[in-house]
C-alpha cells in the first residue's frame, strides 16, 4: 500500500531514520561485501558512537567450557572466560544481558544469538546505561551474531578461534555436518552436544522444523576415525534426502538402510533413531534402529523410558520397522542419547549404566531451567562421573515440547 493510502494511525507514517537505526543500518548495509576480518573494527566503531569502549566478542569453544575472545583490530582480547561462573557465561547461558558495575562504569555482557542458537557473548563498557543503550546494544549484538554465522562459511577465522585443542579430521567432518546446536521457538526447544568434541567420529544428529512437524534423527556409525565419519555422513545425507521428500519414517529407515548397505556392504552398520513431533498437538512418532530408549522427563524428573519395538541397525537389511506413537504433555522433555554415554567403563571396570545417567539427569534438570544449559551441564557431569574418560562417542539430544503456536510473532503491534 502506498504511503498516501495508509489510514490515519497506522504504523509506518513516520519514515525518518533515528540514531539507532542509522547505526544498525550502516552495519547492515556494509555487511554484504565485508571481509570477515573487518567485522571487528566496524563493530568497535559502532559501539564507540554510543559511548562504548573495550569491546570483546567472545565465541563458544567446541567443548562448551570457555568463551574465547575473537582477535581483531579495535577489539579487546584477553584470556578466555569460563562459561561457568563468569558474567559472560551467565549472559551466554541465560540469553540475557548482564550488567556489572565496575569502577564507576558499567560492563555489559550481551548474548550473541543467531536466531535462537547461542554463538557467544559480546562485552562492552559504558560510563552509564539507559534503556535506549540496552535496546540498541541488544539489537547490535543480534546483528553481530548473524554476521558471524553468515561469514563463517567464507573463512576459517571463527573456527580457529573456537578450536582450543587439535581436532581430528573425522571430528572436523562431523562438526561441519551438524545443524545449529540449539533451536528455540515458542512451541518447542531442542539442544544437542557431542563428546569428545575434538575426536568425535561416528556420532551425529540432525533436525528440521517443517511447518508443525519437528524431524529429529540421531545416529551412531560403527567404528572410529574416518571410516565412521564417512558412514555418518552418508547416513545423515540419506536421512535429509528422504525427509525433504516428505516420506514417512518407515521409508526414511529403508532408504538409509539401502544407502549404507550399497556403499559399505553387509558388514557395516549405523544405529539410528528417527522421530517426528507435531509441535501443535504433541503427537510423537519414532523408529528405533538399535539405540537406547529415550528418557521421558516430566516435572523435573525422569518418569519413563520410551520403550518400543526395535529393528536392525541401518545397513543390515532389516524388515519394515514398527512406528511407535505417544502423546506428550506440555512441558515434557525427551532425552535421546547414544550408547557411548552409558557403556563407558568407570575406573575399576564397571559400566557407567543407565541408572547413573538417570540420577545425573534428575540433578541437571533440578539445577537448570533452559534446555541448552541442561544439556551442557549433563554432558559435563556425565564425563566427570566417568572419570573424565570418553573412549567412545557420546551424544545427547534434548527436546522440550511446550505446545501453543507462534502466530503472535508474525503480527506487528
TrEMBL record:
SMART domains: PP2C_SIG
Annotated Gene3D superfamilies: PPM-type phosphatase domain
Keyword tags: Hydrolase
Taxonomy, superkingdom: Bacteria
Location of the PPM-type phosphatase domain: 185-401
Coiled coil: none
PANTHER family per the UniProt record, alphabetical: STAGE II SPORULATION PROTEIN E, STAGE II SPORULATION PROTEIN E-RELATED
Protein name from the UniProt record: PPM-type phosphatase domain-containing protein
Lineage summary: Bacteria, Bacillati, Actinomycetota, Actinomycetes, Kitasatosporales
